[in-house]
Automatic annotation (TrEMBL):
InterPro entries documented for this protein: Ergot_Alk_Oxidoreductase (IPR051604), NAD(P)-bd_dom (IPR016040), NAD(P)-bd_dom_sf (IPR036291)
Superkingdom classification of source: Bacteria
Protein name: NAD(P)H-binding protein
Gene3D superfamilies listed in its UniProt record: NAD(P)-binding Rossmann-like Domain, UDP-galactose 4-epimerase, domain 1
Pfam (any one): NAD_binding_10
Residues covered by the NAD(P)-binding domain: 12-173
Length: 277
């Protein structure tokens, strides 16, 4: 199965990986439906009435599951009934070790596509480079202090551009059915070294502070994060401290035939825009 000439439905089409998947697929001439609550194709996990219109004519789906696992299996079943023959499910590296407080939706997505009866592939990336400029750790870095409970365990951060390129390959080419790819960057960096890399690219001092887990939870609560988020991030860092995602993999190389981009390359690329100034 190749999907050229068929529609590819990209869930989370305006998100960190989904928007990049959409861009790569369209550049390759694929017909893409970019779906989200506010995107060009309306899709809302909490409104099943949006599912079938989004699925109409799609032969493949980039599945980015919601945090709530409840609707995922139903959606996948409806997608297969509508003619979808291939899923690429975005999960997270180490998700099988995080327990019920983190990644339940991703785990549900994995289970649903595995049991779908059609072609499926799962991608499990490490923490994205882009979390430093588009998401969780952007504001702390701009403020000059990133404080996390990493336990000194390194992380092989991965570029969302590489993740999107892998996803586009899996969505449009044969030979990947039934596999799980753990996507990492080329080297495992202590978080302190990662922050130092970003500080050099930004041309300004930025500190990394190691926190105990209870200190991190207290800081999150003081910033107004809900308890669900506090528990989820705590579970994610507990899995990281246990070393479940610390070793680089060669899965980007296996799929794309090239090495993944390193954090230094990413930082040099985005710093000139002033994202950490």
């Amino acid at each position: 199965m190749t999907t050229t000439g068929k529609d590819i439905l990209v869930l989370g089409g305006t998100g960190k990986t989904g928007s990049r998947v959409v861009r790569r697929l369209r550049a390759a001439g694929e017909r893409v439906r970019a779906a989200s609550r506010s995107g060009e194709v309306r899709f809302d996990w909490s409104d099943p009435g949006t599912w079938e219109p989004a699925l109409a004519g799609a032969s493949a789906v980039y599945l980015m599951a919601p945090e709530d696992p409840a609707p995922v299996a139903d959606f996948v079943g409806r997608a297969v009934a509508a003619g979808v023959g291939r899923f690429v499910a975005l999960s997270g590296r180490g998700v099988e070790h995080t327990g019920p407080d983190f990644g339940r939706g991703m785990a549900a997505g994995e289970r649903a596509v595995r049991g779908s009866g059609v072609e499926w592939t799962v991608i499990r990336p490490n923490n994205f480079h882009q979390n430093f400029d588009e998401d969780l750790w952007h504001r702390p870095l701009r403020e000059g202090r990133l404080a996390l409970p990493t336990g000194g365990v390194p992380e092989p951060f991965v570029d969302a551009e590489d993740v999107a390129e892998v996803a586009a390959e899996l969505l449009t080419r044969d030979g990947y059915h039934g596999r799980v790819y753990e996507l990492s960057g080329p080297e495992a960096l202590p978080w302190e070294a990662a922050v130092a890399t970003i500080a050099r690219a930004a041309g300004r001092p930025i500190r990394f502070v190691e926190l105990a887990p209870e200190e991190y939870a207290a800081e999150l609560r003081a910033e107004g994060w809900p308890e669900e988020t506090v528990a989820g991030l705590g579970a994610m860092f507990a899995a990281q401290r246990a070393g479940h995602m610390a070793v680089p993999t060669d899965d980007v190389l296996r799929v794309l035939g090239r090495e993944p981009r390193g954090l230094g390359v990413y930082a040099a690329r985005v710093a000139p825009a002033g994202v950490w100034s």
